[in-house]
TrEMBL record:
It comes from Chitinophaga arvensicola. One of its GO terms (molecular function) is hydrolase activity, hydrolyzing O-glycosyl compounds. One of its GO terms (biological process) is polysaccharide catabolic process. Belongs to the glycosyl hydrolase 5 (cellulase A) family. This is Glycoside hydrolase family 5 domain-containing protein.
């Protein structure tokens, strides 16, 4: 073998080694360099007010670009620059190409409003069963009365669904793996919720493995939300490029979570906070997150069919206005629930 060939082979082996390292968990240095380039991230968990759940948002018959455009305009108007948005595998099964086209359309609209997106794949919250087609009407005064899990009970009743989920996951992530309009892939919302417990661990493990196979340019994460679920939480923290978490507690408790997560040495993004009646508000939590340089993603932008202005455990079956909104910032016509809150948000975002 010639000297030139030996040099080329050594260089190639070195490149393959680097690529292999890059394909796994991001180094802390890479994660922090990525985060330093983003500025302070702030925004909401977003679903248009005309959709009761992820299916109604993404199915072709109810994909409402006019409302998405208008409501992301409300967010831009108060200086928000990031939205966390839930996907669902059912619209992909129904029409994979159409679903991905709708994702791209949504991203075009968000980008027009200078907003990046965190997409969520799987979810263990609320209804454990679902079906394609028209979704039921909201139950008056009931928080998230039509939100659906993904994949829910189906994964336990039909383990072969895992093959479909893998194809869905890899197809969507591969299609947008280098899309700068996407900030981060949130692989699994609140794994173990709705009494799933550790039964959610196998899918969580697969989601990270599938994500590493695709190796997108965006980081992977799954937010910790219940420290009592030790095995799930440990796996999430050990495998996330960027640490995401949920906290609906007052500032003192929220600070304790921050202090617990800081030693991990990775960027922090709070992907759910702000429940007014639980003392998690814009005036006391958002300044804390800005001071700590933590991404601040509150639950809810515009009050609508999800009914998240009603509290989790305080239903109002007559559908009357709650004395204090639990989540959400705007009414559908763009007027704020609280002008004072919007002033606080604008003061923090510089809008």
């Amino acid at each position: 073998m010639s000297y030139r060939c030996i040099v080329w082979c050594v260089a190639l082996l070195g490149l393959m080694s680097c690529q292999s390292r890059e394909k796994g968990l991001w180094s802390k240095e890479r994660a922090n360099t990525w985060y330093a380039d983003k500025g302070w991230l702030r925004g909401s968990d977003f679903i248009p007010s005309t959709a009761i759940n992820q299916l109604e948002m993404w199915q072709a018959a109810t994909f409402d670009t006019a409302t998405i455009d208008r409501e992301l305009g409300y967010a831009e108007g108060i200086g928000m620059n990031a939205m966390r948005v839930y996907l669902h595998h059912v619209p992909w099964v129904e029409d994979a190409a159409g679903f991905k086209k709708r994702i791209s359309t949504y991203l075009d609209i968000a980008d027009k409003h200078h907003i990046v997106t965190l997409f969520v794949f799987f979810d263990d919250c609320w209804d454990s069963t679902y079906q394609a087609g028209p979704q039921r009407a909201p139950k008056p005064g009931i928080h998230n009365s039509g939100w659906v899990q993904d994949p829910g009970l189906a994964i336990h009743e039909n383990p072969a669904l895992t093959d479909t989920l893998e194809r869905y996951f890899k197809d969507v992530m591969s299609s947008f793996a280098n899309d700068k309009r996407i900030l981060l892939w949130d692989l699994y919302n609140e794994p173990g919720n709705s009494s799933h417990g550790n039964r959610s661990l196998p899918l969580l493990e697969k989601a990270f493995a599938w994500g590493r196979e695709v190796n997108p340019s965006q980081p992977l994460s799954a937010g910790v939300w219940d420290w009592k679920l030790k095995e799930l939480s440990t796996f999430q923290l050990n495998h996330s490029d960027v640490i995401t978490y949920h906290n609906y507690a007052p500032p003192e408790e929220h600070q304790r979570d921050i202090d617990t997560l800081r030693p991990l040495g990775r960027p922090l993004i709070c992907t759910e906070y702000m429940a007014r009646t639980r003392s998690s508000r814009f005036d006391n939590i958002m300044p804390l997150l800005k001071k700590e340089n933590i991404g601040a993603i509150n639950w809810g932008l515009v009050a609508g069919k999800t009914n998240t202005k009603y509290a989790w455990s305080t239903p109002m079956p007559d559908g009357s206005e709650p004395p204090t909104w639990f989540h959400d910032i705007f009414r559908p016509d763009g007027t704020p629930y609280s002008e004072e809150e919007v002033k606080v948000i604008r003061g923090l975002t510089g809008k």
